[in-house]
Write a structure and sequence with these properties.
Layout (H helix, E strand, L loop, with lengths): L3 H20 L6 H7 L2 H7 L1 H28 L5 H27 L6 H13 L1 H13 L11 H25 L3 H15 L12
Helix pairs in contact: 1-4, 1-5, 4-5, 5-6, 5-7, 6-8, 6-9, 7-8, 8-9
């Protein structure tokens, strides 16, 4: 099958998920303003929500960019199994506004900070395993990719995904006791993801 409809559906899910992020930054009610000492104080107190929003916006943007690159240069066709795998990936993407809201609301609370960051890290860690499964399925015997795509290029993408899993898994491990360290690991990974993706390599005919 062609990938057109799958790509359009995926873009729609990404657009909704990335829009939902800002909806989790709560507009204050009048009683909130009284309790916080005015609108300025209330808006300043929301800085964790702003931070969570910015980080998650870039994370989703990077996932979308890589997904777009995958379907532009690597994936050439699809089948039912691949469609279901992509649905699973999109489910992890749609989960991120929830984990973003949890961290924004509770990261300043000493009692719940660890759990909030752990929840956020779980949201960050869910997409890469599904992408890895997608790549492995699509490239097995080159069933859904260009037959001339080089094995070296395919292996390089798999290795990069494994490194991403290790980095994000490390952030998750630290989140239980060292949530601030965990957040810094996520930020470092984010800057690494800003590097442009690899251009496909093809075997000589």
């Amino acid at each position: 099958m062609k990938t057109d409809r799958l790509e359009m559906f995926s873009d729609g899910v990404f657009a909704i998920a990335i829009t939902l992020l800002i909806l989790e930054v709560k507009i204050p009610k009048h009683e909130d303003l009284i309790a916080s000492g005015g609108l300025y104080n209330y808006l300043l107190h929301l800085w964790p929500s702003y931070l969570s929003y910015v980080v998650s916006f870039f994370v989703l943007g990077i996932y979308w960019s890589n997904h777009h690159h995958l379907f532009t240069f690597v994936i050439k066709k699809t089948d039912h199994v691949f469609n279901m795998m992509n649905i699973l990936f999109l489910m992890t993407i749609a989960f991120m506004p929830f984990t973003t809201a949890v961290m924004g609301d509770f990261i300043l609370d000493g009692e719940y900070r660890n759990a909030a960051v752990t929840t956020y890290c779980i949201g960050i860690c869910l997409p890469p395993p599904t992408i890895l499964v997608i790549i492995l399925y699509a490239t097995y015997k080159k069933r859904l990719v260009d037959p001339k795509l080089s094995k070296r290029f395919i292996n390089k993408q798999i290795i990069k995904l494994i490194f991403a899993l290790v980095g994000q898994g490390t952030a998750l491990a630290f989140s239980f006791n060292y949530p601030i360290v965990s957040i810094w690991i996520i930020v470092v990974c984010l800057f690494i993801y800003f590097l442009p993706p690899d251009q496909p390599e093809y075997d000589e005919v």
